[in-house]
Input
Amino acid sequence: MIDNFLLLFDYPVLSADLALNGLLIGAVFVLAAFGMALVWGVLNIINIVQGEFVMLGGFVALMAAEAGLPVLLGIPIAALALFILGWGLYRLVIFRVIDRDLFVSVLATFGLSIVLQQLSNELFGADVRTLEAGLGTLLLFDGAVALAQIKVLAFFLALGLGLLLWLFLKYSRLGQAIRATAQNPRAASILGIDTDRVYAATYALNAALCGAAGALVVMAWAIHPYIGLPYTVRSFLIVIVAGVGNIGAVVAAGLGLGAFENVAGFIFGTEYQIALVFLLMVAVLVWRNLRLQRKRMYLK
Amino acid sequence: MSRSAARYAAIGGAGLLVLAAPFLAPAFVTQFTFLWLMIVFALTWDLMGGQLGYNSFGNILFFGIGAYACAVFQRDSGLGYYEALALGAALGGVLAAAAAAFLGLGILGLRGHYFAIGTLGLGIAAGEIAGGWDYVGAGSGMTVPLFPGALELRSLFFYFTLAALALATFLTLRWLYGTRFGLALNAVRDDEDKAEAMGLYTARLKTAAWSLSAFFLGISGALAGNLIGFIDPRDVAFAGATYGVWMVLMAILGGKGTLWGPVIGAAVFHITQEIFWTYLLGWQRVALGLLIVAIVVFFPQGILGTLREKFPGRFGSKAEVQ
Output
Protein backbone atom coordinates (compact mmCIF):
# COMPACT_ATOMS: atom_id res chain seq x y z
CA MET A 1 0.00 0.00 0.00
CA ILE A 2 2.76 2.43 1.04
CA ASP A 3 4.84 1.26 -1.94
CA ASN A 4 2.04 2.16 -4.29
CA PHE A 5 1.68 5.52 -2.62
CA LEU A 6 5.39 6.30 -3.06
CA LEU A 7 5.28 5.03 -6.62
CA LEU A 8 2.90 7.88 -7.46
CA PHE A 9 5.62 10.37 -6.54
CA ASP A 10 8.43 8.51 -8.23
CA TYR A 11 6.49 8.38 -11.48
CA PRO A 12 4.43 11.55 -11.80
CA VAL A 13 3.34 10.38 -15.24
CA LEU A 14 1.58 7.45 -13.57
CA SER A 15 -0.24 9.86 -11.28
CA ALA A 16 -1.27 11.89 -14.30
CA ASP A 17 -2.48 8.75 -16.07
CA LEU A 18 -4.58 7.66 -13.09
CA ALA A 19 -5.98 11.10 -12.42
CA LEU A 20 -6.85 11.75 -16.08
CA ASN A 21 -8.58 8.40 -16.50
CA GLY A 22 -10.44 9.15 -13.28
CA LEU A 23 -11.52 12.58 -14.50
CA LEU A 24 -12.89 11.01 -17.67
CA ILE A 25 -15.09 8.52 -15.81
CA GLY A 26 -16.03 11.33 -13.45
CA ALA A 27 -17.91 13.00 -16.32
CA VAL A 28 -20.27 10.01 -16.42
CA PHE A 29 -20.85 10.31 -12.66
CA VAL A 30 -21.71 13.95 -13.26
CA LEU A 31 -24.42 12.95 -15.72
CA ALA A 32 -26.05 10.53 -13.27
CA ALA A 33 -25.69 13.10 -10.48
CA PHE A 34 -27.49 15.75 -12.58
CA GLY A 35 -30.40 13.36 -12.84
CA MET A 36 -30.40 12.64 -9.14
CA ALA A 37 -30.26 16.34 -8.26
CA LEU A 38 -33.15 16.98 -10.66
CA VAL A 39 -35.38 14.31 -9.14
CA TRP A 40 -34.38 15.23 -5.61
CA GLY A 41 -35.03 18.90 -6.18
CA VAL A 42 -38.31 18.55 -8.06
CA LEU A 43 -39.97 15.41 -6.70
CA ASN A 44 -38.24 15.47 -3.30
CA ILE A 45 -37.33 11.81 -3.70
CA ILE A 46 -33.98 10.13 -3.23
CA ASN A 47 -34.00 7.82 -6.19
CA ILE A 48 -32.16 4.60 -5.32
CA VAL A 49 -32.98 3.15 -8.79
CA GLN A 50 -30.52 5.65 -10.32
CA GLY A 51 -27.70 3.15 -10.72
CA GLU A 52 -30.01 0.54 -12.22
CA PHE A 53 -31.00 3.06 -14.90
CA VAL A 54 -27.30 3.44 -15.72
CA MET A 55 -26.88 -0.34 -15.85
CA LEU A 56 -29.96 -0.81 -18.05
CA GLY A 57 -28.81 1.98 -20.39
CA GLY A 58 -25.63 -0.01 -20.87
CA PHE A 59 -27.54 -3.19 -21.68
CA VAL A 60 -29.81 -1.38 -24.14
CA ALA A 61 -26.78 0.03 -25.98
CA LEU A 62 -25.27 -3.45 -25.99
CA MET A 63 -28.41 -5.00 -27.47
CA ALA A 64 -28.67 -2.25 -30.09
CA ALA A 65 -25.10 -2.94 -31.17
CA GLU A 66 -25.74 -6.69 -31.24
CA ALA A 67 -28.73 -6.02 -33.50
CA GLY A 68 -26.30 -4.53 -35.99
CA LEU A 69 -26.85 -0.81 -35.42
CA PRO A 70 -23.86 1.56 -35.34
CA VAL A 71 -22.32 1.50 -31.86
CA LEU A 72 -22.60 5.22 -31.14
CA LEU A 73 -26.29 5.18 -32.10
CA GLY A 74 -26.71 3.14 -28.92
CA ILE A 75 -26.47 6.32 -26.84
CA PRO A 76 -29.69 8.00 -28.07
CA ILE A 77 -31.46 4.62 -28.23
CA ALA A 78 -30.55 3.92 -24.59
CA ALA A 79 -31.72 7.40 -23.58
CA LEU A 80 -35.03 6.92 -25.40
CA ALA A 81 -35.64 3.44 -23.99
CA LEU A 82 -34.91 4.61 -20.48
CA PHE A 83 -37.12 7.66 -20.93
CA ILE A 84 -40.03 5.32 -21.64
CA LEU A 85 -39.10 3.07 -18.72
CA GLY A 86 -38.83 6.07 -16.42
CA TRP A 87 -42.25 7.32 -17.49
CA GLY A 88 -43.75 3.89 -16.93
CA LEU A 89 -42.20 3.52 -13.48
CA TYR A 90 -43.51 6.94 -12.53
CA ARG A 91 -47.04 6.00 -13.59
CA LEU A 92 -46.84 2.65 -11.81
CA VAL A 93 -45.06 3.41 -8.55
CA ILE A 94 -43.33 6.74 -8.08
CA PHE A 95 -46.42 8.97 -8.15
CA ARG A 96 -47.77 7.01 -5.18
CA VAL A 97 -44.80 7.83 -2.96
CA ILE A 98 -44.17 11.50 -3.79
CA ASP A 99 -46.16 13.00 -0.95
CA ARG A 100 -45.29 10.27 1.51
CA ASP A 101 -42.63 10.03 4.18
CA LEU A 102 -39.12 10.04 2.68
CA PHE A 103 -38.43 6.61 4.15
CA VAL A 104 -41.26 5.20 2.06
CA SER A 105 -39.78 6.57 -1.16
CA VAL A 106 -36.27 5.41 -0.27
CA LEU A 107 -37.50 1.90 0.49
CA ALA A 108 -39.84 1.77 -2.52
CA THR A 109 -37.11 2.84 -4.96
CA PHE A 110 -34.76 0.43 -3.21
CA GLY A 111 -37.27 -2.34 -3.93
CA LEU A 112 -37.47 -1.23 -7.57
CA SER A 113 -33.69 -1.32 -7.79
CA ILE A 114 -33.71 -4.94 -6.58
CA VAL A 115 -36.38 -5.80 -9.17
CA LEU A 116 -34.45 -4.27 -12.08
CA GLN A 117 -31.13 -5.68 -10.91
CA GLN A 118 -32.45 -9.21 -10.57
CA LEU A 119 -34.45 -8.99 -13.79
CA SER A 120 -31.32 -8.04 -15.73
CA ASN A 121 -29.46 -10.83 -13.99
CA GLU A 122 -32.07 -13.29 -15.25
CA LEU A 123 -32.37 -11.77 -18.73
CA PHE A 124 -28.78 -10.83 -19.56
CA GLY A 125 -26.72 -13.08 -17.29
CA ALA A 126 -24.31 -12.08 -14.54
CA ASP A 127 -21.23 -11.70 -16.79
CA VAL A 128 -19.23 -8.52 -17.08
CA ARG A 129 -19.99 -7.11 -20.55
CA THR A 130 -18.39 -4.43 -22.63
CA LEU A 131 -18.88 -2.94 -26.08
CA GLU A 132 -16.03 -2.21 -28.48
CA ALA A 133 -16.63 1.19 -30.01
CA GLY A 134 -13.85 0.72 -32.57
CA LEU A 135 -11.98 3.92 -31.75
CA GLY A 136 -8.24 4.14 -31.17
CA THR A 137 -6.11 5.24 -28.27
CA LEU A 138 -4.87 8.72 -27.61
CA LEU A 139 -1.24 8.97 -26.43
CA LEU A 140 -0.04 11.93 -24.38
CA PHE A 141 3.40 12.82 -22.96
CA ASP A 142 5.33 10.77 -25.55
CA GLY A 143 3.08 7.79 -25.08
CA ALA A 144 3.44 7.66 -21.28
CA VAL A 145 -0.24 8.41 -20.73
CA ALA A 146 -2.66 6.33 -22.77
CA LEU A 147 -6.29 7.42 -23.02
CA ALA A 148 -8.81 5.43 -25.00
CA GLN A 149 -10.49 7.82 -27.43
CA ILE A 150 -13.93 6.51 -26.49
CA LYS A 151 -13.28 7.68 -22.92
CA VAL A 152 -12.38 11.15 -24.16
CA LEU A 153 -15.50 11.12 -26.33
CA ALA A 154 -17.58 9.97 -23.37
CA PHE A 155 -16.15 12.79 -21.30
CA PHE A 156 -17.15 15.48 -23.77
CA LEU A 157 -20.50 13.89 -24.58
CA ALA A 158 -21.36 13.68 -20.89
CA LEU A 159 -20.44 17.30 -20.27
CA GLY A 160 -22.24 18.33 -23.46
CA LEU A 161 -25.40 16.57 -22.35
CA GLY A 162 -25.10 18.29 -19.00
CA LEU A 163 -24.89 21.65 -20.78
CA LEU A 164 -27.93 20.76 -22.91
CA LEU A 165 -29.86 19.86 -19.75
CA TRP A 166 -28.97 23.21 -18.24
CA LEU A 167 -30.10 25.09 -21.36
CA PHE A 168 -33.27 23.00 -21.45
CA LEU A 169 -34.13 23.82 -17.84
CA LYS A 170 -33.31 27.46 -18.32
CA TYR A 171 -35.08 28.28 -21.57
CA SER A 172 -37.62 25.67 -22.70
CA ARG A 173 -41.27 25.77 -21.65
CA LEU A 174 -41.10 22.39 -19.95
CA GLY A 175 -37.83 23.32 -18.28
CA GLN A 176 -39.40 26.45 -16.86
CA ALA A 177 -42.40 24.43 -15.70
CA ILE A 178 -40.04 21.98 -13.99
CA ARG A 179 -38.26 24.78 -12.17
CA ALA A 180 -41.54 26.38 -11.17
CA THR A 181 -42.81 23.09 -9.78
CA ALA A 182 -39.58 22.63 -7.84
CA GLN A 183 -39.98 26.05 -6.27
CA ASN A 184 -43.61 25.71 -5.28
CA PRO A 185 -45.80 22.91 -6.62
CA ARG A 186 -49.01 24.46 -5.34
CA ALA A 187 -48.43 27.84 -6.86
CA ALA A 188 -47.33 26.17 -10.10
CA SER A 189 -50.53 24.15 -10.34
CA ILE A 190 -52.63 27.24 -9.62
CA LEU A 191 -50.90 28.95 -12.53
CA GLY A 192 -51.98 26.16 -14.83
CA ILE A 193 -49.00 23.80 -14.78
CA ASP A 194 -49.96 20.14 -14.78
CA THR A 195 -47.58 19.18 -11.95
CA ASP A 196 -48.25 15.47 -12.29
CA ARG A 197 -47.07 15.60 -15.92
CA VAL A 198 -44.08 17.69 -14.89
CA TYR A 199 -43.16 15.11 -12.28
CA ALA A 200 -43.49 12.32 -14.82
CA ALA A 201 -41.39 14.22 -17.37
CA THR A 202 -38.73 15.00 -14.77
CA TYR A 203 -38.50 11.40 -13.66
CA ALA A 204 -38.37 10.16 -17.25
CA LEU A 205 -35.75 12.78 -18.13
CA ASN A 206 -33.64 11.60 -15.23
CA ALA A 207 -33.91 8.01 -16.45
CA ALA A 208 -32.92 9.12 -19.96
CA LEU A 209 -29.83 10.94 -18.65
CA CYS A 210 -28.82 7.81 -16.74
CA GLY A 211 -29.49 5.70 -19.83
CA ALA A 212 -27.11 7.84 -21.90
CA ALA A 213 -24.56 7.64 -19.09
CA GLY A 214 -24.94 3.86 -19.05
CA ALA A 215 -24.39 3.62 -22.81
CA LEU A 216 -21.15 5.58 -22.35
CA VAL A 217 -20.15 3.30 -19.46
CA VAL A 218 -20.57 0.11 -21.48
CA MET A 219 -18.46 1.52 -24.33
CA ALA A 220 -15.68 3.08 -22.28
CA TRP A 221 -15.62 0.67 -19.32
CA ALA A 222 -17.83 -2.33 -18.55
CA ILE A 223 -21.17 -3.21 -16.97
CA HIS A 224 -22.80 -6.11 -15.14
CA PRO A 225 -26.20 -6.43 -13.45
CA TYR A 226 -24.87 -5.58 -9.99
CA ILE A 227 -23.11 -2.37 -10.98
CA GLY A 228 -26.08 -0.18 -10.07
CA LEU A 229 -25.78 0.56 -6.39
CA PRO A 230 -22.27 2.06 -6.58
CA TYR A 231 -23.57 4.49 -9.24
CA THR A 232 -26.51 5.44 -7.03
CA VAL A 233 -24.17 6.06 -4.13
CA ARG A 234 -21.81 8.10 -6.29
CA SER A 235 -24.63 10.33 -7.53
CA PHE A 236 -25.91 10.72 -4.00
CA LEU A 237 -22.42 11.54 -2.76
CA ILE A 238 -21.90 14.14 -5.48
CA VAL A 239 -25.25 15.77 -4.79
CA ILE A 240 -24.77 16.01 -1.03
CA VAL A 241 -21.32 17.49 -1.53
CA ALA A 242 -22.38 19.93 -4.24
CA GLY A 243 -25.96 20.73 -3.26
CA VAL A 244 -29.12 20.22 -5.29
CA GLY A 245 -29.12 23.45 -7.27
CA ASN A 246 -25.50 24.15 -8.11
CA ILE A 247 -24.49 22.84 -11.54
CA GLY A 248 -20.85 23.96 -11.48
CA ALA A 249 -20.29 22.35 -8.10
CA VAL A 250 -21.86 19.10 -9.33
CA VAL A 251 -19.40 19.01 -12.25
CA ALA A 252 -16.44 19.75 -9.97
CA ALA A 253 -17.50 17.17 -7.37
CA GLY A 254 -18.16 14.51 -10.01
CA LEU A 255 -14.82 14.93 -11.75
CA GLY A 256 -13.07 15.08 -8.38
CA LEU A 257 -14.76 11.88 -7.26
CA GLY A 258 -13.66 10.12 -10.45
CA ALA A 259 -10.04 11.16 -9.97
CA PHE A 260 -10.09 10.33 -6.25
CA GLU A 261 -11.53 6.89 -6.89
CA ASN A 262 -8.96 5.97 -9.49
CA VAL A 263 -5.97 7.18 -7.49
CA ALA A 264 -7.24 5.73 -4.18
CA GLY A 265 -8.09 2.46 -5.91
CA PHE A 266 -4.48 2.27 -7.10
CA ILE A 267 -3.06 2.98 -3.65
CA PHE A 268 -5.28 0.64 -1.62
CA GLY A 269 -5.87 -1.96 -4.33
CA THR A 270 -8.74 -2.05 -6.81
CA GLU A 271 -10.56 -4.68 -4.73
CA TYR A 272 -11.25 -1.95 -2.19
CA GLN A 273 -12.34 0.72 -4.69
CA ILE A 274 -16.09 0.23 -4.19
CA ALA A 275 -15.64 0.03 -0.42
CA LEU A 276 -13.76 3.34 -0.56
CA VAL A 277 -16.63 5.04 -2.42
CA PHE A 278 -19.14 3.85 0.17
CA LEU A 279 -16.90 4.80 3.10
CA LEU A 280 -16.26 8.21 1.56
CA MET A 281 -20.01 8.76 1.36
CA VAL A 282 -20.45 7.82 5.03
CA ALA A 283 -17.52 10.04 5.99
CA VAL A 284 -18.89 13.01 4.04
CA LEU A 285 -22.34 12.59 5.58
CA VAL A 286 -20.94 12.34 9.11
CA TRP A 287 -18.51 15.20 8.59
CA ARG A 288 -21.18 17.57 7.23
CA ASN A 289 -23.57 16.57 9.98
CA LEU A 290 -20.99 17.09 12.74
CA ARG A 291 -20.34 20.61 11.46
CA LEU A 292 -24.06 21.34 11.53
CA GLN A 293 -24.44 19.84 14.99
CA ARG A 294 -22.22 22.53 16.42
CA LYS A 295 -25.02 24.92 15.56
CA ARG A 296 -27.56 22.41 16.92
CA MET A 297 -28.78 21.58 13.44
CA TYR A 298 -28.65 18.44 11.35
CA LEU A 299 -28.74 17.42 7.68
CA LYS A 300 -32.22 17.74 6.27
CA MET B 1 -60.69 -20.20 33.92
CA SER B 2 -59.38 -16.78 34.82
CA ARG B 3 -57.59 -14.57 32.35
CA SER B 4 -54.12 -15.07 33.80
CA ALA B 5 -54.58 -18.85 33.98
CA ALA B 6 -55.52 -18.88 30.29
CA ARG B 7 -52.43 -16.85 29.62
CA TYR B 8 -50.14 -19.23 31.45
CA ALA B 9 -51.78 -22.15 29.66
CA ALA B 10 -51.14 -20.46 26.31
CA ILE B 11 -47.52 -19.73 27.19
CA GLY B 12 -47.02 -23.29 28.42
CA GLY B 13 -48.61 -24.68 25.26
CA ALA B 14 -46.45 -22.51 23.04
CA GLY B 15 -43.36 -23.54 25.02
CA LEU B 16 -44.19 -27.22 24.61
CA LEU B 17 -44.76 -26.69 20.90
CA VAL B 18 -41.35 -25.01 20.53
CA LEU B 19 -39.68 -27.89 22.37
CA ALA B 20 -41.57 -30.58 20.49
CA ALA B 21 -41.51 -29.04 16.99
CA PRO B 22 -38.22 -30.58 15.84
CA PHE B 23 -39.43 -34.04 16.94
CA LEU B 24 -42.92 -33.67 15.49
CA ALA B 25 -41.69 -32.57 12.07
CA PRO B 26 -38.05 -33.68 11.83
CA ALA B 27 -37.93 -32.95 8.10
CA PHE B 28 -38.40 -29.23 8.72
CA VAL B 29 -35.87 -28.63 11.50
CA THR B 30 -33.63 -26.45 9.31
CA GLN B 31 -36.58 -24.31 8.23
CA PHE B 32 -37.64 -23.88 11.87
CA THR B 33 -34.08 -22.95 12.80
CA PHE B 34 -34.01 -20.26 10.12
CA LEU B 35 -37.38 -19.03 11.34
CA TRP B 36 -35.82 -18.30 14.74
CA LEU B 37 -33.00 -16.47 13.00
CA MET B 38 -35.52 -14.39 11.03
CA ILE B 39 -37.34 -13.53 14.27
CA VAL B 40 -34.07 -12.23 15.75
CA PHE B 41 -33.50 -10.20 12.56
CA ALA B 42 -36.93 -8.61 12.61
CA LEU B 43 -36.94 -7.92 16.36
CA THR B 44 -33.52 -6.27 16.40
CA TRP B 45 -34.38 -4.20 13.33
CA ASP B 46 -37.63 -3.05 14.85
CA LEU B 47 -35.84 -1.90 18.01
CA MET B 48 -34.15 0.72 15.83
CA GLY B 49 -36.60 1.23 12.97
CA GLY B 50 -39.88 0.81 14.78
CA GLN B 51 -39.28 1.93 18.35
CA LEU B 52 -36.54 4.53 17.88
CA GLY B 53 -37.54 5.68 14.40
CA TYR B 54 -34.06 5.17 12.93
CA ASN B 55 -34.54 3.09 9.80
CA SER B 56 -31.27 1.26 9.40
CA PHE B 57 -30.51 -0.39 6.05
CA GLY B 58 -27.17 -1.67 7.29
CA ASN B 59 -27.91 -3.74 10.39
CA ILE B 60 -26.53 -6.70 8.44
CA LEU B 61 -23.14 -5.20 9.33
CA PHE B 62 -23.42 -6.48 12.91
CA PHE B 63 -24.57 -9.91 11.76
CA GLY B 64 -21.45 -10.14 9.60
CA ILE B 65 -19.13 -8.88 12.33
CA GLY B 66 -20.50 -11.56 14.66
CA ALA B 67 -20.12 -14.28 12.03
CA TYR B 68 -16.52 -13.36 11.23
CA ALA B 69 -15.44 -12.70 14.85
CA CYS B 70 -16.73 -16.10 15.93
CA ALA B 71 -15.19 -17.93 12.95
CA VAL B 72 -11.80 -16.29 13.49
CA PHE B 73 -11.95 -17.12 17.21
CA GLN B 74 -12.83 -20.74 16.44
CA ARG B 75 -9.98 -20.94 13.96
CA ASP B 76 -7.30 -19.41 16.20
CA SER B 77 -8.25 -20.20 19.80
CA GLY B 78 -7.46 -23.93 19.76
CA LEU B 79 -10.33 -24.69 22.18
CA GLY B 80 -12.83 -27.53 21.88
CA TYR B 81 -15.86 -27.06 19.60
CA TYR B 82 -18.47 -26.07 22.18
CA GLU B 83 -16.17 -23.85 24.26
CA ALA B 84 -14.89 -22.06 21.17
CA LEU B 85 -18.42 -21.58 19.80
CA ALA B 86 -19.77 -20.25 23.11
CA LEU B 87 -16.87 -17.84 23.66
CA GLY B 88 -16.78 -16.91 19.98
CA ALA B 89 -20.49 -16.10 19.95
CA ALA B 90 -20.08 -13.96 23.05
CA LEU B 91 -17.10 -12.24 21.43
CA GLY B 92 -19.11 -11.69 18.25
CA GLY B 93 -21.93 -10.08 20.22
CA VAL B 94 -19.60 -7.85 22.20
CA LEU B 95 -17.59 -6.80 19.14
CA ALA B 96 -20.75 -6.01 17.20
CA ALA B 97 -22.07 -3.93 20.10
CA ALA B 98 -18.73 -2.13 20.35
CA ALA B 99 -18.78 -1.44 16.61
CA ALA B 100 -22.30 -0.02 16.95
CA ALA B 101 -21.23 2.21 19.84
CA PHE B 102 -18.21 3.45 17.90
CA LEU B 103 -19.95 3.98 14.56
CA GLY B 104 -22.91 5.47 16.38
CA LEU B 105 -20.76 8.43 17.42
CA GLY B 106 -21.02 9.78 13.91
CA ILE B 107 -23.80 7.86 12.18
CA LEU B 108 -26.47 8.24 14.84
CA GLY B 109 -26.27 11.99 14.49
CA LEU B 110 -27.75 11.59 11.02
CA ARG B 111 -31.51 11.61 10.75
CA GLY B 112 -34.19 10.23 8.48
CA HIS B 113 -33.12 9.14 5.03
CA TYR B 114 -29.52 10.24 5.61
CA PHE B 115 -29.26 7.65 8.35
CA ALA B 116 -30.87 5.06 6.09
CA ILE B 117 -28.42 5.68 3.24
CA GLY B 118 -25.41 6.08 5.53
CA THR B 119 -26.06 2.68 7.12
CA LEU B 120 -26.68 1.15 3.69
CA GLY B 121 -23.22 2.37 2.70
CA LEU B 122 -21.64 0.90 5.85
CA GLY B 123 -23.18 -2.52 5.26
CA ILE B 124 -21.99 -2.73 1.66
CA ALA B 125 -18.54 -1.31 2.43
CA ALA B 126 -18.12 -3.99 5.12
CA GLY B 127 -18.91 -6.75 2.59
CA GLU B 128 -16.42 -5.29 0.10
CA ILE B 129 -13.70 -4.99 2.73
CA ALA B 130 -14.24 -8.54 4.01
CA GLY B 131 -14.12 -9.70 0.38
CA GLY B 132 -10.63 -8.25 -0.02
CA TRP B 133 -9.10 -8.96 3.40
CA ASP B 134 -6.83 -12.03 3.44
CA TYR B 135 -6.94 -12.47 7.24
CA VAL B 136 -10.61 -13.49 6.94
CA GLY B 137 -10.16 -15.48 3.74
CA ALA B 138 -10.91 -12.59 1.33
CA GLY B 139 -13.31 -13.44 -1.49
CA SER B 140 -13.22 -17.19 -0.88
CA GLY B 141 -14.71 -16.79 2.60
CA MET B 142 -14.19 -18.89 5.72
CA THR B 143 -15.23 -22.38 6.69
CA VAL B 144 -16.11 -23.09 10.32
CA PRO B 145 -14.99 -26.19 12.27
CA LEU B 146 -17.03 -29.36 11.77
CA PHE B 147 -19.68 -30.17 14.34
CA PRO B 148 -18.45 -33.05 16.52
CA GLY B 149 -21.45 -35.33 16.39
CA ALA B 150 -24.18 -36.84 14.28
CA LEU B 151 -26.06 -34.77 11.68
CA GLU B 152 -29.37 -35.00 13.56
CA LEU B 153 -27.71 -33.83 16.75
CA ARG B 154 -26.21 -30.89 14.87
CA SER B 155 -29.53 -29.66 13.55
CA LEU B 156 -31.16 -30.10 16.97
CA PHE B 157 -28.29 -28.22 18.61
CA PHE B 158 -28.68 -25.21 16.32
CA TYR B 159 -32.46 -25.35 16.53
CA PHE B 160 -32.35 -25.00 20.29
CA THR B 161 -29.53 -22.44 20.49
CA LEU B 162 -31.24 -20.17 17.96
CA ALA B 163 -34.64 -20.69 19.62
CA ALA B 164 -33.04 -19.70 22.92
CA LEU B 165 -31.48 -16.63 21.32
CA ALA B 166 -34.77 -15.55 19.73
CA LEU B 167 -36.56 -16.05 23.04
CA ALA B 168 -33.88 -14.12 24.93
CA THR B 169 -34.12 -11.27 22.41
CA PHE B 170 -37.90 -11.22 22.62
CA LEU B 171 -38.00 -11.25 26.43
CA THR B 172 -35.29 -8.60 26.72
CA LEU B 173 -37.15 -6.29 24.33
CA ARG B 174 -40.51 -7.04 25.99
CA TRP B 175 -39.07 -6.04 29.34
CA LEU B 176 -37.29 -3.05 27.85
CA TYR B 177 -40.33 -1.60 26.06
CA GLY B 178 -42.16 -1.53 29.40
CA THR B 179 -39.47 0.51 31.13
CA ARG B 180 -38.65 4.20 31.10
CA PHE B 181 -35.97 3.42 28.53
CA GLY B 182 -38.59 2.09 26.12
CA LEU B 183 -40.74 5.17 26.59
CA ALA B 184 -37.71 7.36 25.98
CA LEU B 185 -37.03 5.52 22.70
CA ASN B 186 -40.58 6.24 21.56
CA ALA B 187 -40.18 9.87 22.58
CA VAL B 188 -37.11 10.17 20.35
CA ARG B 189 -39.06 8.58 17.50
CA ASP B 190 -41.97 10.95 17.87
CA ASP B 191 -39.93 14.14 18.11
CA GLU B 192 -36.23 14.04 18.77
CA ASP B 193 -35.77 17.75 19.39
CA LYS B 194 -38.58 17.84 21.91
CA ALA B 195 -37.27 14.72 23.63
CA GLU B 196 -33.93 16.42 23.98
CA ALA B 197 -35.51 19.60 25.26
CA MET B 198 -37.34 17.53 27.89
CA GLY B 199 -33.96 16.46 29.23
CA LEU B 200 -33.44 13.08 27.62
CA TYR B 201 -29.85 12.21 26.69
CA THR B 202 -30.82 11.27 23.15
CA ALA B 203 -27.28 10.47 22.00
CA ARG B 204 -26.82 7.94 24.82
CA LEU B 205 -30.26 6.46 24.24
CA LYS B 206 -29.65 5.95 20.55
CA THR B 207 -26.21 4.45 21.11
CA ALA B 208 -27.57 2.10 23.79
CA ALA B 209 -30.41 0.96 21.54
CA TRP B 210 -28.16 0.39 18.53
CA SER B 211 -25.58 -1.48 20.62
CA LEU B 212 -28.25 -3.74 22.09
CA SER B 213 -29.62 -4.44 18.64
CA ALA B 214 -26.06 -5.13 17.41
CA PHE B 215 -25.31 -7.41 20.37
CA PHE B 216 -28.12 -9.83 19.57
CA LEU B 217 -27.39 -9.62 15.85
CA GLY B 218 -23.71 -10.37 16.49
CA ILE B 219 -24.58 -13.53 18.42
CA SER B 220 -27.07 -14.55 15.74
CA GLY B 221 -24.33 -14.04 13.13
CA ALA B 222 -21.94 -16.27 15.06
CA LEU B 223 -24.56 -19.03 15.32
CA ALA B 224 -25.80 -18.64 11.74
CA GLY B 225 -22.25 -18.78 10.39
CA ASN B 226 -21.82 -22.14 12.11
CA LEU B 227 -25.26 -23.31 11.07
CA ILE B 228 -24.58 -22.57 7.40
CA GLY B 229 -21.02 -23.85 7.77
CA PHE B 230 -19.44 -21.48 5.28
CA ILE B 231 -19.07 -17.72 5.55
CA ASP B 232 -19.10 -15.94 2.21
CA PRO B 233 -18.39 -12.22 2.56
CA ARG B 234 -21.21 -11.01 0.30
CA ASP B 235 -23.73 -13.86 0.28
CA VAL B 236 -23.75 -14.90 3.95
CA ALA B 237 -22.03 -12.51 6.34
CA PHE B 238 -22.86 -9.15 4.74
CA ALA B 239 -25.74 -10.37 2.60
CA GLY B 240 -27.43 -7.02 2.16
CA ALA B 241 -29.55 -8.18 -0.79
CA THR B 242 -31.10 -11.05 1.16
CA TYR B 243 -30.92 -10.95 4.98
CA GLY B 244 -30.32 -7.22 5.07
CA VAL B 245 -33.51 -6.45 3.13
CA TRP B 246 -35.55 -9.20 4.76
CA MET B 247 -34.98 -7.61 8.18
CA VAL B 248 -36.65 -4.40 7.08
CA LEU B 249 -39.37 -6.16 5.13
CA MET B 250 -40.38 -8.56 7.91
CA ALA B 251 -40.62 -5.81 10.50
CA ILE B 252 -42.76 -3.64 8.21
CA LEU B 253 -44.91 -6.58 7.12
CA GLY B 254 -45.70 -7.49 10.72
CA GLY B 255 -46.13 -3.92 11.92
CA LYS B 256 -43.42 -1.43 12.82
CA GLY B 257 -43.13 -0.32 16.40
CA THR B 258 -44.96 -3.23 17.97
CA LEU B 259 -43.51 -6.09 20.00
CA TRP B 260 -45.32 -8.93 18.27
CA GLY B 261 -45.34 -7.36 14.81
CA PRO B 262 -41.78 -8.38 13.85
CA VAL B 263 -42.39 -11.92 15.15
CA ILE B 264 -45.56 -12.28 13.09
CA GLY B 265 -43.94 -10.62 10.08
CA ALA B 266 -40.94 -12.96 10.28
CA ALA B 267 -43.20 -16.03 10.53
CA VAL B 268 -45.47 -14.98 7.66
CA PHE B 269 -42.56 -13.98 5.44
CA HIS B 270 -40.53 -17.09 6.17
CA ILE B 271 -43.43 -19.49 5.65
CA THR B 272 -44.50 -17.80 2.40
CA GLN B 273 -40.93 -17.87 1.21
CA GLU B 274 -40.51 -21.57 1.99
CA ILE B 275 -43.81 -22.55 0.39
CA PHE B 276 -43.83 -20.43 -2.75
CA TRP B 277 -40.28 -19.54 -3.56
CA THR B 278 -39.16 -23.01 -4.47
CA TYR B 279 -41.52 -22.78 -7.45
CA LEU B 280 -40.07 -19.50 -8.67
CA LEU B 281 -36.74 -20.96 -9.81
CA GLY B 282 -34.29 -18.11 -9.62
CA TRP B 283 -36.95 -15.42 -9.89
CA GLN B 284 -37.30 -15.21 -6.10
CA ARG B 285 -35.23 -12.08 -5.83
CA VAL B 286 -37.32 -10.31 -8.46
CA ALA B 287 -40.37 -11.33 -6.43
CA LEU B 288 -38.69 -10.02 -3.29
CA GLY B 289 -38.21 -6.61 -4.88
CA LEU B 290 -41.82 -6.52 -6.06
CA LEU B 291 -42.93 -7.56 -2.58
CA ILE B 292 -40.97 -4.69 -1.02
CA VAL B 293 -42.53 -2.16 -3.37
CA ALA B 294 -46.02 -3.57 -2.84
CA ILE B 295 -45.77 -3.71 0.94
CA VAL B 296 -44.18 -0.29 1.32
CA VAL B 297 -46.60 1.42 -1.05
CA PHE B 298 -49.87 -0.33 -0.24
CA PHE B 299 -49.43 -1.89 3.20
CA PRO B 300 -47.06 0.33 5.21
CA GLN B 301 -48.87 -0.24 8.51
CA GLY B 302 -48.22 -3.97 8.48
CA ILE B 303 -50.44 -6.74 9.81
CA LEU B 304 -50.54 -5.62 13.44
CA GLY B 305 -50.74 -1.94 12.53
CA THR B 306 -53.80 -2.57 10.36
CA LEU B 307 -55.45 -4.73 12.99
CA ARG B 308 -54.78 -2.12 15.63
CA GLU B 309 -56.41 0.52 13.47
CA LYS B 310 -59.47 -1.67 12.88
CA PHE B 311 -59.89 -3.00 16.43
CA PRO B 312 -58.25 -0.47 18.74
CA GLY B 313 -60.06 -1.83 21.78
CA ARG B 314 -58.35 -5.18 21.48
CA PHE B 315 -54.96 -3.51 21.83
CA GLY B 316 -55.78 -1.73 25.05
CA SER B 317 -55.78 1.72 23.48
CA LYS B 318 -58.66 4.08 23.09
CA ALA B 319 -59.76 4.81 19.58
CA GLU B 320 -58.84 8.14 18.12
CA VAL B 321 -61.57 8.53 15.56
CA GLN B 322 -60.68 11.11 12.96
Q: What stands out?
A: Chain A has one domain: 2-293. The longest helix of chain A spans residues 12-43. The beta strands of chain A are 137-140, 145-148.
